[in-house]
Design brief:
single chain, 491 residues, alpha+beta, six-stranded antiparallel barrel, five-stranded mixed β-sheet, 25 strands, 31% strand, elongated
């Protein structure tokens, strides 16, 4: 809007120059010292009563509101974008915003995001919260796992205790169990035999080969005992490892149950909140569906091209406060979206369909803007529409704050997407005051101002006090002035 700014700047220069001329006129053309009647001036203007406004015009931008980035909820690890609503289009209730793998995501109106999966069964009096069922199933599975791990731990501890007791018996001087009585007895017999044969050999009563044979028998008996002891020690170690692993598994299962139980209790506490169910019902009713809610859901799913399952989850719906305007695409048709990608962007960006004006207002003029205050917006074709200040920013950027202006008459903005507009703020005002053109003021020699009141073709000077100067007029008060009177002005 360069040309408009140039015109506005030029107008400001002309107004400033006019103000100098007016002031010069007031001070260079003083009233006569006496308020005697005189001939009527060549031109007159009426004293009016009403609201006097002093305004400031600032250039702003007409467009749409803040953008929302739409990131889809992916059911699988990845999905392909097969359709996206065109940029610049308006999507209303019941219409798709995009499709992944051929399955559309439908726009519903409301304030509650579709954060859970609901199943509407035809034979159930109310929808089933699938996440709650899943949580119950998960905690039952975790409890079963805990019982199995506890049984595994008990078995490992029993095996370790048995192996430890048998090892102690095997190492005892006089074992008590049959298997070790036999093995240990074989060692003692071999030791005794070796002793006798060795004594006979020393007396040269037995050949040396018998000594060697006795030594071999003793070595065999000891080897059998050592093997039994090693086997028992291995059993003790194996049972100990199994017991340790089972203890870890039991502790993990207990922790899992505690975590699942917290989740379950949270879900149970939230189960009474059926705001999303009411929201679905309201939207289906607005779309014209009737009958039991489960039947409505299935009818809508069939018409919308969704699987007719009676289940509605986060991937099926996009919830917004009303119709949306598609501002930009974040993905391309045919692009594969990956759920695990931390850099996954939006499928599209959207805003509300309501157009508004953003005005960068100087910090020094921030007093002109207050939420709820009316303003006048001049469109590029010079049409004027009324607006209301809906927000005054608090962040200062390059000496300005953003002021948001809403336009009630959206029809007047048809055909305009983004445009530069002028916004007129009221800087000061006076209600129910008398005013005259600034040019009607005359400077009095003794100070102050007067106006020449014309009555019956005769003019008379009347002292006045001045107030607000605005829009080429000035507020006046005085005993000799009233609404409807005529005052002289330069011809």
């Amino acid at each position: 809007m360069t040309r408009a700014r140039s015109i506005f700047a030029g107008g400001a220069i002309i107004v400033a120059a006019g103000a100098v001329v007016i002031v010069g006129f007031i001070w260079l053309h003083t009233a006569p010292p006496a308020a005697a009647p005189s001939a009527a001036p060549a031109a007159t203007a009426e004293i009016t009563r009403g609201t006097l406004l002093d305004t400031k015009t600032v250039t702003g931008t007409l467009g749409y509101g803040d953008l929302s980035a739409l990131r889809p909820a992916l059911v699988d690890s990845s999905a392909m974008a097969t359709w996206i609503a065109p940029v610049g289009s308006t999507v209303e209730r019941g219409k798709p915003l995009y499709s992944l793998d051929g399955q559309p995501a439908i726009l519903f109106y409301g304030s509650v995001p579709q954060h859970r999966t609901l199943r509407f069964d035809l034979d159930a009096p109310a929808p089933v919260w699938v996440e709650l069922e899943r949580a119950k199933t998960a905690i039952e599975a975790a409890r079963l796992k805990l019982r199995l791990e506890q049984e595994r731990l008990a078995d490992a501890e029993a095996r370790m205790a048995d192996a430890t007791a048998r090892l102690a018996d095997a190492l005892a001087h006089t074992p008590e169990t049959a298997e070790f009585i036999e093995v240990a007895g074989a060692v003692r017999v071999a030791e005794a035999k070796l002793g006798r044969v060795s004594a006979l050999s020393a007396a040269e009563l037995a050949p040396s080969i018998e000594v060697a044979s006795a030594e071999a028998e003793l070595a065999t008996a000891r080897a059998a005992l050592d093997a039994a002891v090693r086997g028992l020690r291995k059993d003790v170690a194996g049972a100990g490892l199994d017991a340790a692993a089972a203890r870890v598994a039991v502790a993990a299962a207990v922790a899992e149950i505690e975590e699942l139980d917290i989740t379950l209790q949270t879900l149970v506490a939230r189960a009474s909140d059926n705001s999303d169910v009411r929201q679905i019902a309201d939207n289906l009713a607005a779309l014209g569906y009737e009958g039991p809610l489960p039947a409505q859901v299935r009818g809508w799913q069939s018409d919308a091209g969704l699987p007719v399952t009676g289940s509605i989850g986060p991937s099926h719906l996009v919830v917004a406060s009303g119709p949306v305007h598609i501002a930009a695409h974040g993905a391309s048709i045919g692009e594969t979206l990956v759920a695990s990608s931390s850099e996954r962007g939006s499928v599209l960006d959207y805003s509300s369909v309501e157009k508004l004006v953003i005005v960068p207002l100087g910090v020094g003029d921030r007093g002109l803007a207050a939420v709820g205050r009316p303003v006048t917006v001049t469109l590029p074709d010079d049409r004027k529409v009324e607006g209301t200040i809906s927000d005054v920013g608090s962040v200062v950027t390059e000496g300005t704050v953003d002021v948001t202006v809403t336009i009630g008459n959206q029809v007047a903005l048809s055909g305009l997407e983004v445009a530069s507009v002028d916004v007129e703020f009221v800087s000061d005002s006076r209600d129910d005051v008398l005013s005259v053109p600034v040019a009607a003021l005359l400077a009095r020699p003794e100070g102050g101002y007067a106006v020449e009141v014309v009555t019956g073709g005769v003019g008379a000077l009347v002292p006045v006090d001045t107030g607000l100067f605005a829009a080429g007029r000035v507020e006046v008060t005085g005993d000799g002035v009233a609404q409807g009177m005529l005052v002289g002005v330069p011809g």
